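We emphasize that the prediction below concerns an isolated chain of 164 residues; any contacts that depend on oligomerization or on bound cofactors are therefore not represented. The input was used exactly as deposited, without trimming of termini.
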Amino acid sequence: MKNDNSLETAVVTQLIEKNWHIAFAESCTGGLCAGRLINVPDASRVLDVSFVTYANEAKIQYLGVPIDLIEMHGVVSEEVAGAMAKGVAKTAGCEVGVATSGIAGPSGAVPGKPVGTVCFGFYINGSTHTATCHFDGMERNEVRAAAVDFVFETLAKGSGTFAL
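Result of the prediction step, given as a token string:
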């Protein structure tokens, strides 16, 4: 299946129209979101910096995620993903921050959070929105790809009252 970049193009176009910038704080997706965005011409007009914060310490140091939030809810939680999104936007000085934190597998499952669980944070111009998806029955890289698809579908199309 060939990706036609239409979702990424829509995101870049919307960001350019608003004169907004975006930054990603990626854990389980390991830079795939930023990589997919820069497939689009003119992505440099909306993306200056992004972070792969795989370790908890990186989330704390670079994004300002409170350690007690991680201890209370676990790193794979909407609370932490929301804090990551807000933190990356603040660190990067931009209007849009997007975060992913999940269990791509094949190991890492914990009670209540099976392999395939991915939490998302979207910080858009002062408002934080979160979501959790369960990508069941997928292998590691399929979970990661599905998570990136969810990010761009959410950004391009919005979700309820939440949109770029």
